[in-house]
Design brief:
The structure is a homodimer. The first copy, chain A, is α/β, with parallel strands linked by helices. Chain A is built from 14 helices and twelve strands. Chain A is elongated. Chain A starts with a helix and ends with a strand. The interface between A and B is large, with 37 and 37 residues. Chains A, B: InterPro entries: HTH_LacI (IPR000843), Lambda_DNA-bd_dom_sf (IPR010982), Peripla_BP_I (IPR028082), SBP_2_dom (IPR025997).
């Protein structure tokens, strides 16, 4: 890995090469890299973009620092600020950055890949020093094309099949498996899984597989973040509970679904005998106060935020990063 | 008011006047207004700042558009994203702006006036088109000096003694009064008020005065947002409940305190007879699921966000704004 880096540094094409191939001045190249696209024609921009691609040119951090002046702003893109995970993550990022003279700036994709694309476009056109990014989808297909150049970036809470960016993750599979196992020991044989759309996001898939590795009899209720009908979902859960004779565990793959659906089931008395119980990923004290005795899985998003912030500052300082994937283990308590 | 505006427009000093007095070029002035302070000495910046103050120069929206190119980014500063009010407000702003080709960008003061100052400094130095601002304190003393020039700004959720910026507010006094009145009719004679530091923020003062206008026998529990100890606060509430023989209403001045402290009191059985009851300002469905029968005050932060976004776009388009204070009535239900 390191040998490779040294080699690629020797061969690194520089701004002059790009300028020559595109037939423009280096000033124009630096404008392009700065995102000052207003000052050039679309034709010129396209020519530069082509030249960059042909030469596989990546401005070094140093080159970027020369052409851009640091704004001390780090963009944080979260998939949905309605999730407590996201606000806690942002608090963690923000407090670490603040202590180092940077400011964290939050963008909300609102669970929409279209909006996410627009945000990435805006960020890469303006003077942000780096991005900490929780994508709406693990494929990143949607936005790969929007990331013109090597803006420092850290991916959080999504497991991607790439080493292009460092990733900060929870041990989703293991912690979901461990929690399920402890309920299996108490005789639970059936799981109702409450989740957002499961296929598009690694986090959810891993959690589901962790559950399935322990208890095979599972029902999934997929909830659309934009358009769900609370009463209908509740009805679905109750139907499954009444149909199935086994001891059942209701497993919320994220806190929001726990907070939305567990209290009404509680007040209807479903958890009074031990035939039905509940668990889920939950990071705030509110989930705890709703169900004081529940065993919950805590991801520590604040710490995940702090680690992501530390990583992005390391990249900015061109320090070596030891691990491309940092796993922050969740706690079950 | 309008006559005044026409008059001041005739007399408006322009960029040339400022350049002349400061002894620099208009390009330098426009750099200053753009916040490109890195490209000039501190001395020059100070001279320009003095000249602007002496001439009472305010760049018109048109002048600003000439010197800055629009970034299509609106900065939203909230007092604390841990409050559901703030995230809902942001969702409202964001969806309205998005529909109009703008992007909302969130900054979190984290209940710290020091941090707020740093954020204002950053925003006014960079290329944001406007600010929607929920200050940590109603005095604004802290940050008045940081706002060099007339960046379009809308204040939300704080009632300020100024007409410099439009304000979007709830009818805090009236809605707190109305809610308290309905409980007084049911025989409640004593109120325990759960609030963050009450003196610094208009919203809280108004709500408290609304309560006091109806029931005089009140106890206030002030909770520090940064350092509160849950158990201690709970103990305080319980002591007050046990000491006072009257029928008591626990009134949470914001949702976070409702969610933190009502569930544990619920599970301890405090609300089982009707001697003790609860209400509060609460905007999410979670408060409702915790206490399905509680009468709660809903501010509609999403709508307040939408209105703030509409106002900032009007200012950007130099449209006339009818009312300097927009009151969005809260609903009690």
């Amino acid at each position: 890995m390191e040998a490779n880096m040294v080699e690629s540094r020797k061969k690194r094409t520089n701004m002059k090469d790009v300028a020559q191939l595109a037939g423009v001045s280096t000033t124009t190249i630096s404008r392009f890299l700065n995102g000052d696209l207003n000052k050039m024609s679309t034709k010129t921009a396209a020519r530069i973009s082509d030249a960059i691609e042909k030469l596989n040119y990546t401005p070094s951090a140093a080159a970027r620092q020369m052409v851009t002046h640091s704004s001390k702003m780090i963009a944080v893109i979260v998939a949905n600020i309605d999730d407590y995970f996201s606000t806690e993550l942002f608090k963690g990022i923000s407090s670490f950055l603040e202590a180092n003279g940077y400011i964290a700036v939050l963008f909300d994709s609102n669970a929409s890949s279209e909006k996410e694309k627009g945000i990435i476009k805006t960020i890469t056109s303006y003077n942000f020093d780096g991005i900490i990014f929780q994508p709406t989808s693990s494929s990143m297909e949607n936005i790969n094309s929007e990331i013109h150049f090597e803006i420092p970036m850290v991916i959080v809470d999504r497991n991607l099949d790439t080493t292009r960016w460092p990733q900060v993750l929870t041990d989703n599979y293991q912690s979901a498996r461990k929690a399920t196992l402890s309920f299996k020991k108490e005789g639970y044989e059936h799981v109702i899984v409450l989740t957002s759309k499961i296929d598009s996001v690694s986090t959810r898939r891993e959690r589901y597989l962790g559950i399935r590795s322990t208890i095979q009899d599972t029902d999934i209720i997929e909830i659309s973040e934009e358009t769900y009908n609370r009463k209908m979902i509740l009805k679905q859960i109750e139907n499954l509970l009444n149909k199935n004779g086994k001891k059942t565990l209701i497993f919320a793959l994220k806190e929001r679904w726990f907070l939305e659906f567990i209290p009404p089931l509680l007040s209807k008395g479903y958890f009074q005998n031990n035939k039905i119980t509940t668990t889920g990923f939950a990071d705030t004290s509110i989930a705890r106060t709703i169900s004081p005795k529940a065993k919950l899985i805590n991801q520590n998003p604040f710490l995940m935020g702090g680690i992501s912030a530390e990583l992005i500052l390391k990249i900015l300082k061109r320090e070596k990063i030891k691990s491309k994937k940092v796993i922050v283990p969740a706690k079950i308590k």
